[in-house]
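User: What would this chain look like folded?
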Amino acid sequence: MTGVSAAAALEARQRDPRAAIGMGRSALKAAWAAGDAEEASIAERAIGLSLRELHDFEGALTHLRRSVRAAERAGSTRLVALARVSLAFVLSNTGRHALALRAINAALPELRGGDADIARMQRGLVLHYLCRYEEAQREYNWAIEAARRTDDKLGEARARNNRGLLRAYTGGLRAADEDFDRAAVLYRELDQRLAVADVRWNAGISASRAGDVPRALTMFAEAEHEYRLLEVPRPALLINRLELLVSVPLLEEARAAADRALAELGGDLVLARSEALFHRARIALLEDDLDLAVELAVAARKGFRREKREVWEAGARHVELRAAYLSGQRTRALVTALTRVASRLDELGWRMAGLEARVDAALVARDIGDRKRAVAELSTAGAARRGGPAAHRVQGWYAEALRRDLLGNRRGAQIALRQGLALLDEYRVSLGASELRALSGAQGKALALEGLRTAVAGGQAGRVLSWAEAWRAGALRMTPARPPEDSGLADALAELRAVTADLEAASTAGRPTAALRQRQVRGEQRVRELTRQAGGGGAVFKPPAVRDLARALGSSALVEYIDHDGALLAVVVAGGRASLHRLGPLDAALRELRLLRFALHRLVTLPEHVDRTAVRAGAEHAAKLLQDRLLEPVRRRLDDRPLVLVPTGKLGGLPWSALPACRGRSVTVVPSATVWLRAATSTLISHDRVVLAAGPRLPAAPTEIAAIDAGSPPGGSASVLVGASATVDAVAAAMDGAPLAHVAAHGSFRADNPLFSALELADGPLTVYDLERLRTPPARVVLSACDSGLSAVRPGDELMGFTAALLGLGTRTLVAPVVPVPAEVTTPLMVDLHRRLGKGDSPAVALAGAQEAHRDDSDAAYAAGAGFLCFGA
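Assistant: Here's the prediction, encoded as structure tokens.
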């Protein structure tokens, strides 16, 4: 047996680790048969490093220790040193950094030339793990220069990949990407597929740190695809995706990923487990679960301390201190601790966490009266506004606004806050997925609340409205970005529809559904991934001034509700001026809202023979309480004007049509005044063509469609899709650019995944994702489907669901229910609505008239009618 086979196995470990293990074992057997201990040492090292690629760390350590012993038996100090360097590499992977560093330092004097270069690169990696970044970079630089001198492409690629990752974590993002690009080229030349995938994953980390979410997700997806093809496990990679999810923040998904990571990452994956604890603590902090955040952060900090990872330990300490700040602690000791951890995080390259800690320190100092220290900390933090990733600059503008406010420069503070929010809007519009745009709005919370606080204290209605609009439903103020046609999204949606249809059939027939549910979950994740990878761009519509809003309203009145520290405020714009009103605690309104929704739901679900008198009385009583709380205090400003209502997100499911003052009255509900103005001033389309579609398993739906079609004006044209012809593709194609579309179908609202809220059609669900692929949205839409007007609400009153999707795309008006509606009793209401639209009534007037005409048909008809709202214009 020659040395070539063992060397070939060693070289193949990053191309195909399983094949390399087989090669190494063959070489090992032949080596011992020939009594060749040197060859055996190389073979054992090849096997050990290949097992490391497969995350079998215990197996890797066993074989690398055998490699050391075989080299000692052969009397080769060089091979002993190389084996110890490889052993140190795996020890560091398992958190034993100090032991690893001692092993490499002991081996280095025995190595020369290229061997020494490899050892120094591995030493750099251990120093990297230990957060000794400057020393690590010096070692990587040495390894790269040495590899280039000797034309060692593999050595250069490995060192560049490692240096790129270090640069990504210490802020050198552009230089990091240059390293990754060069490493990928070299690895491709060497046919190292697994190594190329690793580089792409690291490039995803760099993109994540730069705030380029679509690129990060694309890099992660491409790397994961390659890992699956190579059948190479990468369980620790959950953590890097987790960091990205938290940064957006995609909190529900991040929480699930963190819990999965904590359940799966055990044994030797101690580094990844500590990081999972850290990110789970950050999630708890964002969800205001402060006790859990502290518990997890303490556990993570102890792990990082054992692993000698100073920057991560400082990050965990920051979570503990921020939880203390959010819980109301205000002491000089807390200021000192926050300042100390901010300085350490800055020094070690974690600039965003350092910024947050420094701003927290300043706020505590401000609250305890130490104005001088607060200004000093804010001055340091405010410098971040001048450069770096968008998140850093936004935080910098927030710090600068607080500094100016402390110095008495109120106008300058307001300008700084608006600069920060404008910068955040620029960043958000660069994201192509509506989901990412909506959720990333959470990053502007501190700026918006500070601006609103100042405006409310000043008592000027126009300024309060301006600040409420600056953050409210911001994703809907942006030019919609549609997914690219070649993304594979259409195929993924079609596959998901087929799985969902199979699942429904299996469930109805009583067959096992577990496997189909897993396929559905994977299909939904695939759709999300493809959508999130799309790039964005476009314009951001600025909130209107009161005078522009008043001009567009004409004789109508707009009421915008605002949640301010748990108190409900209202700004009314009517008769050319704005006024500010305080309505009391929000919680009381939410309690009455729950009672109203419960009563309406009971009215439509109770059996026919049950007396509904008491239930209806309960619904009307709750509606009267809500009116007294929400409309009565501003009644004098409203007179009998048509209403445009802008509820805060927590009031989003309120069936306003049930309130006595709204009966028979033109009422429009919108996510924000900006969205209303955009819809109201959009170009009207002639309504001589209608799209009418009916879903399956709803006997009343075809009847409803036939009745509406029969009442269409003479000479008008209607696209009628019922039965097998009402497929998702057919209905979506007909809706594209239609003046008016009406869909009667089973509807489902997904609170867990609002963009998968669906209308059931012949071949499966038509989801929000399907609507977002329309080139031109229908001008007016009527959805006769349960809960189809509901939306999930995220920070900043960002809405996610059919309402947000259609209004965001440019639909002028949507009529849909926010409660379950029985098709049998809604058909007369829908037919009457279309009759009135045909006569030329506006949608809000037509809906109000139809609701009033059918209000007393039955208790169920009253409840169903009250649940329909007119959204938009």
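The first strand starts at residue 557 and ends at 564. If you want, I can go into more detail on any region.
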